């Protein structure tokens, strides 16, 4: 089985959500293969279907003045932040054809980043017993929030590479009050001017751990116009 990889670069959240939904429907109809979207968003706060709005700490006026939009979406989890320097991944994956349940899917994404951080940077990352995501001690470096529609996944993960961590002060990240957030830049004490090499690592580990025979780069217009029955 092959995997489409769609690199959107810096892309507005609402438009990316529209693309996700379109590709989700195409995957459900079997018109495209499994697809991984990688993107960087302008500053945005998203609330999952079980989110507490009180976990947004900043005022509406502050968010508006600082260009931070807010979106209510249908993923699991509470409130999270996306912004510059963060790699966000949206896997559009047919779990039935992968013969994989939701729990295994989540565990595999966590394993991807645990291995990447350990093998590439020597960072001892791991899981936290009561919360999803990938952690370095008590600080989350990769957040996870998914939805599954007719056996196809959407939404996904957010990996803090060089994210401005002070922006997380505007929320209670994932509704967890007694833990923090971190980034690759903070842990290594060096700047990451380009997240491109980290995207390459994510793609490599994703293809390996999910056992895809081939990962092929695809353009947005290409995949939106695809109507081949898989």
Can you offer a commentary on this structure?
The chain is of the alpha/beta class and about 230 residues long. The protein has a single domain (about 1-225), classed as Bira Bifunctional Protein, Domain 2 (BirA Bifunctional Protein, domain 2), CATH 3.30.930. Helices cover about 30% and strands about 30% of the residues. The chain contains six helices and twelve strands. The protein is globular and about 45 Å long. The mean pLDDT is about 90.
CATH topology: BirA Bifunctional Protein, domain 2
* Poorly predicted residue ranges: none
Looking at CATH, the homologous superfamily is Bira Bifunctional Protein, Domain 2
H/E element order: EHEEHEEEHEEEEEHHEH
CATH class: Alpha Beta
> Which range does the strand content fall in?
25-35%
Layout of helices and strands, plus pairs?
Elements: E1 2-10, H1 13-28, E2 35-40, E3 44-47, H2 60-65, E4 69-72, E5 79-82, E6 86-92, H3 102-121, E7 126-128, E8 131-136, E9 139-149, E10 152-160, E11 180-181, H4 184-188, H5 196-209, E12 214-217, H6 220-224
Parallel strand pairs: 1-2, 1-12, 3-4, 9-11
Antiparallel strand pairs: 2-6, 3-5, 6-10, 7-8, 8-9, 9-10
Helix pairs in contact: 3-5
Quick structural summary:
With 230 residues, this protein is of the alpha/beta class. 29% of the residues lie in helices and 30% in strands.
Please name the defining characteristics of this protein.
230 residues; alpha/beta; BirA Bifunctional Protein, domain 2; nine-stranded mixed β-sheet; three-stranded mixed β-sheet; 6 helices; 29% helix; globular
């Amino acid at each position: 089985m092959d995997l489409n990889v769609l690199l959107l670069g810096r892309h507005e959240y609402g438009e990316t959500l529209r693309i996700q939904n379109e590709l989700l429907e195409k995957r459900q109809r079997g018109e495209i293969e499994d697809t991984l979207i990688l993107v960087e968003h302008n500053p945005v706060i998203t609330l999952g279907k079980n989110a507490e709005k009180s976990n947004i700490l900043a005022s509406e006026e502050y968010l508006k003045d600082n260009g931070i939009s807010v979106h209510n979406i249908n993923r699991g989890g509470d409130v999270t932040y996306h912004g510059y320097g963060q790699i966000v991944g949206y896997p559009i994956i047919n779990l039935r054809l992968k013969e994989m349940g939701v729990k295994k899917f989540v565990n595999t994404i966590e394993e991807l980043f645990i291995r990447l951080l350990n093998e590439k940077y020597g960072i001892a990352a791991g899981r936290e017993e009561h919360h999803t995501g990938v952690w370095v001690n008590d600080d989350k470096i990769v957040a996870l929030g998914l939805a599954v529609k007719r056996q196809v996944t959407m939404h996904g993960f957010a990996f803090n590479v060089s994210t401005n961590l002070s922006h997380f002060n505007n929320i209670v990240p994932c509704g967890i009050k007694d833990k923090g957030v971190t980034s690759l830049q903070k842990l290594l004490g060096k700047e990451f001017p380009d997240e491109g090499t980290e995207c390459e690592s994510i793609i490599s580990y994703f293809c390996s751990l999910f056992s895809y025979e081939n990962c092929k780069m695809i353009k947005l217009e290409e995949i939106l116009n695809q109507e081949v029955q898989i």
